[in-house]
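A.,

Following up on our hallway conversation. Structure tokens first:
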């Protein structure tokens, strides 16, 4: 057993502990406390020990992109086309997933919510095994046509079973309202509940999506028609953001990715279902598409669990959660440093269904932690100091020192 002492321990799920200590054994936290301790300690000095960050939404298959794909004058449908073209060009080479995992770890990320477009048997999926951190691999399901529903649900179930022999955790991901038949969505929500696996869905992301749902028109319809997959029955069932939220509330865990255009009624519904539902805000991707201001403060006021994600390098220049946090702190000066750290740790872990394991310093959780210089921090400003100094973090692998 190893015991580490630091000027501050920030458990996140409990108040900050000055002169705190954490004891670890075989990769797990066995106890924590404040003040003196009987065992021999390793003194880390004037730092704060915090949990690893959680990137609750990304697509690692784009991790080798030098810069985001062109959003074509801000039109989301054009960006989707660019994503499809990039995939078809087969520029996604081996090593891309491993590279994305390494980039994440370099920015202090201890767990990732990854959307995967390939089966567990695919060569690229073997790179998920190289992860030394916690990883939820959400298998993406795309199918507007009713005749594909059974086949796609079988694929999702195969994915859940495959995870039992892997280092990663299974998740499910109906892609978005404009690509998923209503029956496929409800089937995936049932699988989430039956197997207790988390689900993630892009929802209320763009005005183009809202237009498609409400009017059945616009650039996304044109895109789907060009791709010859337009299926009006699939789009209308269900047909409003609220109907999607009600379906998602039947999951074991449901992460609503983006939620840029969720309105007050949606926010209060999600807040009331916070045991199941979370929202994942991707700040720099939100900015990349030039959306109207994100309703972050309103969501928090409605008791919504807001996690943070980088999204992929198709819409963000890098996978750094630290840069993401700095960006959101600047954009929302009224949101406290404590809240931002909760969003970047515990809220993300909860969305992923991994809150027992990561996202907080607690007995039974992973002992892979971070240390951050904390200057002369006091109880009043320790979260702020940690947020400001986050780019000077070090990994603390408790059992490996
Ligand atoms: Zn995404």
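Then the amino acids I'd put at each of the 401 positions:
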């Amino acid at each position: 057993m190893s015991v580490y002492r630091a000027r501050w321990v920030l458990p996140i799920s409990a108040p900050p502990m000055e002169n705190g200590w954490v004891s670890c054994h075989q990769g797990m936290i066995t106890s924590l406390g404040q003040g003196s301790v009987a065992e021999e300690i390793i003194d880390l000095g004037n730092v704060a020990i915090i949990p690893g960050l959680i990137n609750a939404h990304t697509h690692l298959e784009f991790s080798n992109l030098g810069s985001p794909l062109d959003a074509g004058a801000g039109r989301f449908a054009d960006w989707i086309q660019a994503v499809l073209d990039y995939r078809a060009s087969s520029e996604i080479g081996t090593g891309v997933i491993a590279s994305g995992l390494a980039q994440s770890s370099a920015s202090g990320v201890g767990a990732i919510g990854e959307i995967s477009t390939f089966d567990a048997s695919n060569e690229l999926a073997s790179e998920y095994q190289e992860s030394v951190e916690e990883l939820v691999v959400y298998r993406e399901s795309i199918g507007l046509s009713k005749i594909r529903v059974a086949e796609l649900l079988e694929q999702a179930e195969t994915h859940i079973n495959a995870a039992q022999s892997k280092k990663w955790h299974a998740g499910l991901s109906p892609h978005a309202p404009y690509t998923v038949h209503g029956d496929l969505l409800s089937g995936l929500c049932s699988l989430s509940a039956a197997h207790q696996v988390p689900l993630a869905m892009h929802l209320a992301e763009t005005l183009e999506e809202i237009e498609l749902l409400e009017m059945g028109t616009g650039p996304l319809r044109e895109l789907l028609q060009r791709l010859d997959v337009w299926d009006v029955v699939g789009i209308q069932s269900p047909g409003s953001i609220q109907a999607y939220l009600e379906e998602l509330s039947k999951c074991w865990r449901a992460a609503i990715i983006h939620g840029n255009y969720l309105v007050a009624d949606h926010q209060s519904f999600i807040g009331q279902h916070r045991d199941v539902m979370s929202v994942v805000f991707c700040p720099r991707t939100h900015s990349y598409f030039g959306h109207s201001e994100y309703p972050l403060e309103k969501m928090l006021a409605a008791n919504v669990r807001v996690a943070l994600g980088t999204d992929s390098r198709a819409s963000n220049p890098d996978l750094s959660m630290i840069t993401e946090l700095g960006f959101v702190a600047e954009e929302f000066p009224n949101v406290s440093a404590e809240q931002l750290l909760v969003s970047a740790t515990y809220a993300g872990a909860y969305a992923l269904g991994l809150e027992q394991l990561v996202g907080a310093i607690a007995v039974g959780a992973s002992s892979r932690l971070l240390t951050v210089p904390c200057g002369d921090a006091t109880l009043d400003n320790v979260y702020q100091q940690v947020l400001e100094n986050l780019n000077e973090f070090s990994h603390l692998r408790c059992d490996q020192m």
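The chain has two domains: 2-51+360-400, 53-352. Curious whether your intuition agrees with the design.

B.
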